[in-house]
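New to this. Please check this protein:
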Amino acid sequence: MSELYNQFLEDADKNAFNPEYRKRIKYNISKYDESVVRGKQQYHDLDLAKDRAAFIKHKVINELEKYLIEFESNFISHGGKVIWASDEKDAIREIIKILKKHEVKTVVKSKSMTTEEIELNEHLKKNKIESVETDLGEFIVQIADEKPFHIVTPAMHKSKQDVSELFNSKFGTPIDNTPEDITVFVRKLLREKFLSAEAGITGANFLIADIGGIALTENEGNGMMSMSFPGIHIVLVGIEKVIPSIKDLDLFWPLLATHGTGQNMSVYNSIVTGPRQEGEKEGPSEMYVVLLDNGRTKVLENSEQRRVLSCIRCGACLNVCPVYKTVGGYTYNATYSGPIGSVITPFFNGFKDYKHLSFASTLCGSCTEVCPVRINLHELLLLNRRDAVKKGYTTGKDKLMMWTWKKMMSKRSHMEYVTPGVKNFLMKKFVAKTWGDRRELPVLSPKSFRQMWEERKGMK
């Protein structure tokens, strides 16, 4: 058993039986559920929209190099610079190089899970560059010295009182501050950072191939200010985020908004095609797009699991997943949690250490049902399990149990060869620990169903 697996079990046990923790997550997700029901009412035929989006993303993933080259060519033609990063070390090295070249001391960041993936803030801090998260939820978890709990709502795990106490300890604000009071305080603090920062770093929801642009979706306006106020704009984005045309945004933007937050459209939707052009007075003087691989081509190599690269990071699968709602985002100990994280993390971080995530699922299919781009997530989790076994990442105990189970289930005579007493002994010996001490281990009946049926019908 890996250390990460044991930690997963420990954290899952702690969170699953913490009533206050469960109550908080249930409340926050219930508000999301209410909003999504309203958001979906904008569609005359939601299934058709999903089918169209799935087709487009599937086509792009199968021809990824073509669309990435098209994006690069068009973006460079507008004066932008493209950097290809094979892994997080490449990305960090290139970003630090840019910032040092321009003598950057302060960076403002919009919400980006890709920057979390490479732990960019930690590396900027090591190089004595201040990095300020400007999304309110991200800012909250940053000052709490935590990671995002959810890929869309980073501070979902915190109550109003938690946030008020956090701000009181960090900034001396009144302990009884309301969410509105805290928002006003943060707005004023961040506005000063926007005006003084030399560089802004953002992610991108989509790379638009035919115009060489990036599309950024948000609800607070902090993304636009991170892009437009500083003199340098750096975009870190996964290579899978490309879409063929600007015309596709009328499909993807509403799907992302509805499934992400229940809105018809997010409040701010920006398209940026490069740095400030001649004759323009506003915007960055230089703009860089860092295209990050970091394990994505490993996924691409798999003809079955590559479908997961269609993900638009709406977070809907997390919100319906009974496992995520029970154990919480931090239990996964990875950048991406929930069903989507359980599929991609073994590829990004290694099957040896993260194979257990693919087994942490009820396979109920809810994630597949809600996905706006038709990713068959519950089936991909099964394929990951298969691959983990093929790669040899199973224990001797696992192999023995499966071999025994296969032998017993192959013939009725095998099943009944072992006496019930021995079966119950084996259950206690090999299953009790996994079953857990909060549930009563079932006791096998002295007689099988076949035996009882034959006796009832007078066949014996």
